[in-house]
Structure to design on (272 residues):
């Protein structure tokens, strides 16, 4: 029997993650995650994101692709590697000086929710047709990914209403910190590879980063000190839809990772 992994072609997860526009969602999620003081401290204190940002991006993208499109064995192996890394890492709370574990369930849950909410919200605002039921199903499916990093799936929001309630409860814990500000500026203007920083690519990236930031919830933009007006949502939506149109005009094969392409081959074998 062909192993289609944790999800398969009939899942909402495959439909959402087949969209090239999700690179924008990844950037949005990083802006959002940085508002959690301990989460951003854990990254700053344990990561090489400033010295090797593109390498870290590739590793993260590979992990996400493996959990979404890889075989069950590949996804579980990726989860074990991440759990092993997290288990030995510690961080220091920037306010209290107290040490904390990077694999603290509260931190893992925040990163998970910020990521999956960014994926499905960006897809919808880009024009991907997803019903309210599809969104709820996506969140429920993503509990399987949460389990890979060691979370109890029942402790993870599994619907849009539960995500909204989770955000409502955690907002008092989120704020702009020195680390969040540094992350914001780094994400907005990172060093570009291959001397691209001196080309128009820099301007293109600035526009992409501005769009990703504008896609944040109004309350998150306000925590960064920016305007959180609803009137900013329409330009962000239009920009996101425009980027998706450009990307969708190109062959999908340019955006599909090797693990994604292999998944499509396995899925084709089940119907042939």
């Amino acid at each position: 029997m062909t192993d289609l992994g944790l999800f398969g072609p009939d899942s909402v997860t495959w439909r959402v993650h087949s969209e090239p526009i999700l690179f924008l969602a990844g950037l949005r999620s990083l802006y959002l995650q940085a508002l959690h003081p301990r989460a951003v401290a854990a990254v700053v204190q344990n990561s090489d994101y400033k010295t090797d940002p593109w390498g870290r991006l590739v590793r993260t993208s590979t992990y996400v692709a493996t959990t979404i499109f890889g075989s069950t064995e590949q996804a579980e192996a990726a989860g074990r590697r991440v759990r092993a890394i997290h288990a030995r890492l510690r961080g220091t709370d920037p306010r209290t000086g107290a040490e904390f574990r990077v694999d603290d369930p509260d931190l893992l849950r925040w990163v998970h929710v910020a990521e999956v909410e960014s994926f499905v919200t960006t897809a919808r605002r880009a024009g991907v047709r997803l019903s309210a039921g599809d969104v709820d199903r996506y969140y429920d499916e993503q509990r399987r990914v949460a389990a890979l990093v060691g979370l109890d799936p029942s402790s993870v929001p599994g619907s849009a209403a539960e995500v909204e309630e989770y955000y409502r409860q955690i907002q008092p814990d989120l704020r702009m910190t020195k680390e969040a500000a540094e992350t914001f500026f780094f994400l907005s203007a990172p060093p570009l590879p291959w001397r691209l920083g001196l080309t128009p690519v820099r301007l293109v990236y600035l526009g992409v980063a501005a769009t990703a930031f504008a896609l944040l919830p109004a309350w998150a933009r306000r925590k960064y000190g920016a305007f959180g007006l609803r009137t900013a949502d329409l330009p962000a939506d239009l920009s996101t839809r425009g980027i998706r149109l450009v990307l969708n005009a190109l062959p999908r094969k340019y955006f599909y990772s090797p693990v994604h392409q292999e998944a499509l081959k396995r899925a084709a074998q089940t119907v042939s």
The mean pLDDT is 92. The first strand starts at residue 90 and ends at 92. The two ends are 13 Å apart (CA to CA).
